[in-house]
Amino acid sequence: MFKVILWDIDNTLLDFFLALHNSLNNRFKEYGLGECSLEAASRFDKINVKYWEYIEKGTLTREEALTGRFKEFFEKEGISFEDCKSFNLAFETGLADDIYLIENGYDIVKSLKGKYNQYAVTNGAVEVQNIRLEKSGFDKLFDGVFISEGIGCEKPSVEFFDYVINRIVPCSRDEILIIGDSLTSDMLGGNNAKIKTCWYNPKGNINSSGVRIDYEIKSLNEIYEIIKGTD
After folding, report:
1. Residue of 8, 10, 4 lying closest to 23 (CA atoms)
2. Would you say 36 and 21 are in contact if contact means Cβ atoms under 8 Å apart?
3. Residue 198 near residue 225, CB atoms below 8 Å
4. pTM of full prediction above 0.85
């Protein structure tokens, strides 16, 4: 029986790509770079995922990766722009400009409030993620929020999850379920922490990573059957 649900935020409860495109487009205009198309935003998104994996693996520091992603992006787009550090800071802040919910995630978390202890576990900047959670209303639903920048380490590290588990309601690890879209962050993190994993996989991607998946869902509504089946 699960007592605790750990929710990933980006691309699980909040649509990160739409926020990414909105912020990129606004920053392009702000810096006099024209407009950023959906296609260009999609290309950046792939670069962004790669650089976040560098952070997760410890290959690059957070600052190296977050500025490096824009250096690579501008070079590949043929855009002459060098102040990647400033652009990155503006982009990060802009991620909180508008909120885009995924499916009925808000209603699901709200319906489970009081029945399970629910926590947000997210990689990202403290200020930005807190604003996004506040604007979406999730801050009032969660029993706690854990953000990698504030902890000092990222998912999927054991250190991140040990920090979280030591600060949530006391329970055994087999009573904890993590729900997220990322194999390299959420699911691998769940493996490392020895807790149950639920992969939110709306596009039906193939798991060729070797990461253990306990449950897989294409719609967030399917979470009801999973937790009901463990009661």
Report:
1. 10
2. yes
3. no
4. yes
